[in-house]
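Trying the structure run again after the queue cleared.
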Amino acid sequence: MPGELIPIVMFISAAAVLIFRPLTTRIGKVIERSHNEQKAAPDPQLQRVMQLMERLVDRMDRLEDRVDFNERMLERQHGQAQLGEGPAAEESQRGTSRLHKRDHL
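Done. Tokens:
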């Protein structure tokens, strides 16, 4: 009995593949077409949000560059002030001496 079922199951499986294959390929094409249409016409609100996000990222990059520059400059001035030499230290000393002269006048 089980030996007789093997050819029957094989025949039914082959028939199912031959019958359902065109149907499944058609369904696949419909799904692919609808997916491509959604890609071609994205939501305008989503596009606007994406543009705003890109602008924010650009602004953040520029702000990071400015902060990095300011930190380097402050570090440099702090290092020169600790050494007690350099143009920044001399300028600060000149500025304070000028202030004291103005106070006495």
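The first helix runs from residue 2 to 40. Worth checking whether this holds up in the mutant runs.
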